């Protein structure tokens, strides 16, 4: 390539070139375009190469692995330079004073570890259209002068820096299309004339700052605005009417994690293009009005963690494209059966932690299209609809802490995709159905704090996430690609004979992560998104289960948490538990387990929580590896245990008595039926004999009644004396 002395444009972008740049590139003195974007080039950039290429108009080095630093002063004499794109490289801008001879149109210095204030050479630029200085260490205030000097500026990206202070805008209207200043330290209120100064905005992201006050009504002038993110600030007040009626093009709106209040969705709301709406974690109150019906293309609606009241609105069922409906942690109330039967939610439905009551009704057609259902912490009652277990699409069913009764539905679809079944804290009765093992993809089961009885099924080895490590399940994270319109092609700013690709971002990936709470390690853990894909657990605690622990549970090699506490389980701890190689938490406390703790359990290298308190275990406790960290609190209520953990020497104490055989247990056991009958007969015989004796002998008859009279007189005397003393 270096021999092509008359080469004008060189585009090697989006390949897999590695190694360092050859020094001989400095021979290409006629070169106007050099694009090496997105390769695997490394080493230090040869300064002499770029110093000699004074004809450069377009230089892009983004997306490589260059080391060292690069001073922009090397390009000071490149009077023709219009496009400069560098990323993932240490850029020096203020190492010594220099004046640029170029007038840039595009400047992209993302992830260049630039510190201090905005580079001073930009004060001499007056024709910029696109600026990206994001992901750096910039400090200081908002560069109002950039907007003031560059009247044709359309894109300004300053996110992920350390900028602070108030947001000041120019005095006159600007045609800025994209403004992204998220994740900085800006404070104060937005200017009242915000929408009048920047009426052409299409994309506005000011999230993760400390802005306060209300949204200025002038925001309603931004009629072309498609994307608005004001989340994670300190905004307050009601959403202004001018904003709700003026931003008619808005497709994405996120004002979550603020202090907005008042009613939402008034009837005059005219945001007809809304598809993604996040209003969660605010202070909105009152009933849900019907203004949102003007947005028929709604995909995601999140109004969780507010102070909304009233009944679940029937009109929510009118959205045919709704993928995600999140309304948890409010004060919604009323009978839930009718509104839920009308809903058409494809992926996530969460109306947990409200005041809903009544029976739960789901048609099979609806439940078969739903992926994740969260209804926990309400007052729902009746039986659990069997349609929920017949769906082939449902992945999460969370009905915790309600008032459901009856049995767990036995009709289970063998093709079920259910991954998390959470029925904790209800009034479910009967046995654990064997059909539960048909849920071969289940990873988390929590049916604790119910009234279940009978034995534990031994068929859990049919559930493959507990048995063997497989590919991670990806149903707990899904995304949407928001195509950013009006994003420029490089041809809009630079004419080239080659098809140059702009290295800026032209879309935004919206991630929706499912969250499940499960008791592990003695506390409620929240598992979300990718982490949830790897979590496995079984919690049958606080029921009335009986019988022995099936040895088959010990072969669930991929199980992370096991809780069988607070039941009536008997027998010994299965030695097969030593196969639970991934177990982190095991709770067998408050049962009737006997025998020794298998010493093989010391091979469980990940075990952090182990509790066998209040059983009838005996013999030495394991004291190697993980078990060396356990103390007496893990073994309370087992009087026959010995070892360092329980502060009891096994060698000096009498050995525990051998377990009795079934025949010995039968010989030593008391026949309670015979005992009760013999006691009743003896009691009646004594009473009848005493009455017969008093009836036949008149002397004893008189003495008996005399004794009774004397007792009555004595009791009356002491009572009278006590009352007189009190007066």
TrEMBL record:
Its main location: membrane. It is a single-pass membrane protein. Keywords: Cell membrane, Glycoprotein, Leucine-rich repeat, Membrane, Receptor, Repeat, Signal, Transmembrane, Transmembrane helix. The chain crosses the membrane at residues 677-696. The keyword Transmembrane applies. Signal peptide: none annotated. It holds the Pfam family LRR_8. It is found in: Cell membrane; Endomembrane system. PANTHER family: RECEPTOR-LIKE PROTEIN 14, RECEPTOR-LIKE PROTEIN 8-RELATED. The keyword Hydrolase does not apply. One of its GO terms (cellular component) is plasma membrane. The lineage of its organism: Eukaryota, Viridiplantae, Streptophyta, Embryophyta, Tracheophyta. Belongs to the RLP family. This is Leucine-rich repeat-containing N-terminal plant-type domain-containing protein.
